[in-house]
Amino acid sequence: AGGGGGSCNAGDINDDGIINVLDIVTMVNFIMGTQTPSDDQACASDANEDGIINVLDIVLIVNIIMGG
User: Fold this and answer.
1) In the predicted model, what is the mean pLDDT of residues 30-42?
2) pLDDT over 70 for what percent of the chain?
3) Per-position DSSP letters for 1-68, written without gaps between them
4) Average pLDDT over residues 42-67
5) Residues 11-40: what's their mean pLDDT?
6) If we measure between CA atoms, which residue out of 32, 33, 4, 28 comes closest to residue 14?
7) What is the reported pTM?
8) What is the pLDDT of residue 68?
9) Stretch 26-39: mean pLDDT, rounded?
10) Are 13 and 45 spatial neighbours (Cβ–Cβ below 8 Å)?
11) Cα separations (Å) of 8 from 16, 30, 32, 34?
C-alpha cells in the first residue's frame, strides 16, 4: 500500500462522505480563526487549490452542493 500526495476529497471538510452546509460552516470557522484545520481539512477546504482558504473556496463548494 502506498499513498499519493494531495488526495483529499475537496469540499468534504468533515469527512462524512457528503458535501453539505456542515462543511461550509466548518470552513467559515477556519476563515474566521475560531477553528484550526488539520492537514486533511485544509486540503479539503482549499477547493481552488490556491493555498488559501477563503470565500472563493466557499463559492466553489456551494456550487458543488447546488450541482454546478
Assistant:
1) 96
2) 90
3) ----TT---TT-TT-SS--SHHHHHHHHHHHHTSS---HHHHHHH-TT-SS--SHHHHHHHHHHHTT-
4) 96
5) 96
6) 28
7) 0.83
8) 75
9) 97
10) yes
11) 13, 17, 22, 22
User: Which grid cell sits at 21?
Assistant: 452546509
User: Locate cell 483529499: which residue?
Assistant: 8
Grid coordinates of 27 = 470552513
In which residue are the cell numbers 452542493 written? 65
Q: For residue 45, what is its C-alpha cell?
A: 477546504
Q: Cell for 22?
A: 456542515
Pull the grid cell for residue 46.
482549499
- Cα 24 from Cα 4, distance rounded (Å): 26
